[in-house]
Write a structure and sequence with these properties.
Length: 323
């Protein structure tokens, strides 16, 4: 495998010396360029402040040094990186007429976005397992979800994301590209890249579709199984207040799962046609730009501990400035 991979990279470097792409984005709507720029700039600003703010609040507040918030801080880090890989180029292309991107730049963007997407998928599954242990085995929670186990689960999420992203890049680099090609999207997304290939992309397409389906099935199976046990356990609780607290704790996570996995299932598990490129762009916008903004809002607006920690941090900072 290492020898074949090296050969592929060497051949690809020779074949793609003069290759570049043009990200079509939303250029077919010239009157919307400035409004879209302002909308996406606002979303990106909220994303950066929200996710970095969430990480800061969790790290500075000892009360939030628990497994759930440990996972949440890494989810915020992944969302920040995910948005930062995609949105700056999107904003640039809404302002300039030259929407070109080099072959290396396009492949790099795809690789980094792929790492973030897969990592977040596994991270959400790990968070579901964490909620399962917390609700169904509260007495064993600190033992089962020890700092070592939590670190291993997070490390496994990053490793899984990087491992499969390299596999996708390997298959992508086996394709031939020639000249300057127009990508009918705002991001270097797999289906858009292979659509402009000069060779048969069926193997590369099949590999990512099979992996996406398997990855979705495995992660959603973990999530579904965890929440079935959680639901059964909660319904057996004699206290109405206890049931409400348990459900409210899981509500944020379930919302994050729904808004993340929906567009993924649409993009990679449902075959797309040329007539559906607008839907592909909208779905891509949702899970690459909007979802990273929504996650910190979902977890902060529905979480008393986070809101209290944020108030304390803001109060302490204001006192420091006044003094």
């Amino acid at each position: 495998m290492p020898h074949s991979a090296t050969s592929v990279f060497r051949i690809t470097q020779n074949q793609t010396a003069g290759v570049s792409f043009i990200l079509l984005g939303f250029s077919e709507y010239p009157d919307l360029q400035v409004p879209l720029f302002l909308v996406f700039l606002t979303i990106y600003t909220i994303t950066v402040l929200g996710n970095l703010g969430m990480i800061t609040i969790i790290r500075l507040n000892p009360k939030l040094h628990t497994p759930m918030y440990f996972f949440l801080s890494h989810l915020s880090l992944v969302d920040f990186c995910y948005s930062s890989v995609i949105t700056p180029k999107l904003l640039e292309n809404l302002l300039v007429e030259d929407r070109s991107i080099s072959f290396a730049g396009c492949i790099s963007q795809f690789f980094l976005a792929c790492v973030c997407a897969i990592t977040e998928t596994i991270m959400l599954a790990a968070m579901a397992y964490d909620r399962f242990v917390a609700v169904c085995n509260p007495l064993l929670y600190t033992v089962v979800m020890s700092p070592k186990i939590c670190s291993l689960l997070v490390a496994a999420s990053y490793f899984w994301g990087m491992r499969w992203s390299f596999v996708f890049i390997y298959f992508l680099l086996t394709l031939n590209f020639c000249g300057t090609k127009v990508i009918n999207n705002f991001v270097c997304e797999h289906s858009a890249i292979v659509a402009v290939s000069c060779s048969d992309p069926s193997v590369s397409q099949l590999s990512i579709v099979i992996f996406a389906i398997i990855n979705e099935i495995l992660s959603l199976l973990i999530i579904f199984t965890s929440y079935v046990f959680i639901f059964v356990t909660v319904m057996r609780m004699p206290s109405t207040a206890g049931r409400y607290k348990a459900f409210s704790t899981c509500a944020s996570h379930l919302t994050a799962i729904a808004i993340f996995h929906g567009p993924i299932l649409f993009l990679y598990c449902v075959p797309t046609t040329k007539s559906s490129w607008l839907l592909v762009k909208i779905a891509s916008i949702f899970y690459t730009v909007v979802v990273p903004m929504l996650n910190p809002l979902i977890y902060s607006l529905r979480n008393k501990d986070v809101k209290q920690a944020a108030r304390r941090l803001i109060t302490s900072q204001s006192i420091c400035h006044q003094s």
